[in-house]
Design a protein that fits this description.
Distance between the termini: 82 Å
Number of strands: 0
Number of helices: 3
Strand content: under 5%
Order of helices and strands: HHH
Length: 84
């Protein structure tokens, strides 16, 4: 629970218009009550998921590149045998 009065007073003391300070404090209160809060564990789990997806994409790209390189090498060898 947020102390919206303290937030509004802090903003007003910093020079914000009192009505604006109240509106900001109310917005913070509403966001705190209705918003989805992300915990550090949730954030870390999302980063781990993204890391795994990036790693999988890199591995797939490496595999495709390896097969293409082998294909080119095969073509070069075939051309050299044909010409040689």
């Amino acid at each position: 629970m947020f102390d919206t009065l303290t937030i509004a007073r802090t903003l007003a003391d910093a020079g914000a218009d009192p009505k604006l300070a109240d509106a900001i404090a109310e917005g913070i209160r509403q966001a705190a009550e209705h918003g989805e809060h992300v915990t550090p564990d949730m954030f870390d789990a999302r980063i781990d998921t993204l890391d795994a997806r990036v790693d999988a994409r890199i591995a797939a790209a490496e595999t495709r590149l390896t097969w293409r390189m082998l294909g080119v090498a095969g073509l070069v060898i075939a051309a050299l045998r044909f010409l040689g």
